[in-house]
Design a protein that fits this description.
Radius of gyration: 36 Å
Largest sheet: 7 strands, antiparallel
Number of domains: 3
Structural class: alpha+beta
Length: 432
């Protein structure tokens, strides 16, 4: 580069001497013309000389800290000095690469080496940023609290990329659920499902025929269904978004109603309204009325909840009581809570706005719901919208007069007797 620059400078100098010498023999116009040509040629020569000052600087490269907290060190050696402290999510500019370490610089100008195992690349950071932008307008279906320190993942699954680290007690907003097969440890053999005996009626020789177990050739061994685990797409208090293992968090529900969960897991709790009880033991005399959705303590369900329960407040006894319950359903979040009138009612109270909630359940005309084996997404087919109003301590379903409630799917079989009772109850609740 130095040799080329010297040759260019010599050529420019010779050209300048020639022009100055000839300017004594030429007129002013010709002199200015040659001078302008000399300037243009000089600019082209300098531009083509490869001068480093005219080259664009390479774009900066960044990495991001994934550890909760770590240190930068002045050299890669068994004995080194700390030069800076960095924390989770902090952006660092890359200065140099080593064998397993990266030399970086903080926003404050501090420099040092850091292990590449505790940093994420720009590509991983962009995945989380895209996740945040794609779901920033998603409705919140429930709230939760982090049980222990845990990482957010870019996708559902234990082996997916992770970045943001959440602290114990962090408040979360739940956006969507996914369910995937639990990965098996290396070398684990897949268990085979045992064939069930077939029960059939023996040939009747009279009125009292007895059932007998009929021997049947064993069916080919089939693998047992895989164990499943649930993941939730969550948003933390900073707005960062990612996937979190469901067992690492608890749905945020008040202690006053969790004692009535009856062995089920509260998936979401929502305040319908409040009632004033001056003699209540609580400091706040405005007692909230809750609608809750619950499910069994089991991962891999193809629905979000199988029970809806409203907790009303008994002012005389100063305690919560069950004001409404809808069981054995395949329900899906979100639960929408609002205040509305009864469009089908004829009584004076129908025109008065009252707390209203609605949710969707799987229709009996829908096919089986199968989670996506790759993404874990649960997309039901046809659903039924159920809407209820809270009037005083009574919960009534909003249903158009003269119509029959649509059929619903049930996780547990329903006898014909219970079906008839349910249909009769639906007709009875249509009008007061």
């Amino acid at each position: 580069m130095a040799a080329i620059s010297m040759k260019v400078w010599c050529a420019v100098t010779r050209s300048l001497r020639t022009i100055v010498s000839s300017s004594r023999q030429l007129g002013l116009v010709q002199y200015l013309s040659r001078l302008s040509s000399f300037v243009a040629v000089s600019v082209l020569l300098v531009a083509g000389s490869g001068c480093s000052r005219l080259r664009p600087k390479p774009s900066a490269q960044y990495v991001y800290v994934t550890a909760k907290q770590t240190f930068l060190r002045d050299r890669v050696a068994a004995v080194s000095n700390r030069t800076a402290t960095v924390e989770n999510g902090e952006r660092l500019e890359v200065l140099d690469h080593g064998r397993r370490f990266v030399k970086v610089q903080t926003a404050k100008g501090e420099q040092g080496w850091i292990d590449e195992k505790v940093v994420a690349t720009q590509e991983i950071f962009d995945q989380f940023e895209k996740l945040k932008q794609d779901h920033k307008a998603d409705p919140v279906v429930a709230s939760a609290v982090v049980r222990d320190e845990v990482y957010m993942h870019a996708k559902p699954g234990r082996d997916t990329e992770r970045f943001f680290r959440l602290s114990e007690g962090e408040k979360l907003k739940l956006l969507a659920r996914a369910t995937l097969a639990k990965p098996l440890p290396p070398g684990t053999r897949v268990a085979k499902a045992a064939p069930a005996p077939v029960v059939a009626a023996s040939i009747a020789s009279g009125k009292n025929a007895k059932a007998a177990v009929v021997a049947k050739a064993p069916a080919p061994d089939e693998p047992a269904p895989p164990m499943m685990e649930d993941w939730w797409l969550v948003r933390d208090s900073k707005g960062d978004t990612g996937w979190l293992f469901s067992r690492m968090m608890d749905v945020d529900a008040p202690d006053a109603i969790t004692r009535y969960s009856e062995g089920q897991r509260i998936v979401g709790s929502y305040v319908l309204t409040t009632v004033n009880d001056p003699e209540a033991e609580q400091d706040d005399k405005n007692i909230p009325i809750y609608v809750t959705v619950l499910s069994p303590y089991k991962a891999g369900l193809t629905y979000d909840f199988d029970q809806v329960r409203v907790f009303t407040w008994n002012i005389k006894k100063h305690r919560y009581e069950t004001g409404f319950r809808d069981r054995n359903i395949e329900g899906y979040l979100p639960v929408k809570v609002t205040t509305a009138t009864d469009p089908y009612g004829k009584s004076p109270t129908a025109t008065t706005p009252a707390p209203t909630f609605s949710y969707r359940v799987l229709s009996d005309e829908a096919g089986p719901v199968i989670p996506d084996p790759v993404t874990g997404a649960i997309v039901p087919g046809k659903t039924v919208l159920k809407t209820y109003r809270l009037e005083s301590n009574l919960v009534r379903r909003l249903l158009q007069p003269g119509t029959t409630a649509p059929g619903e799917a049930h996780p547990e079989p329903v006898s014909e007797k219970k079906k008839a009772a349910a249909a009769k109850g639906s007709r009875g609740r249509k009008r007061r």
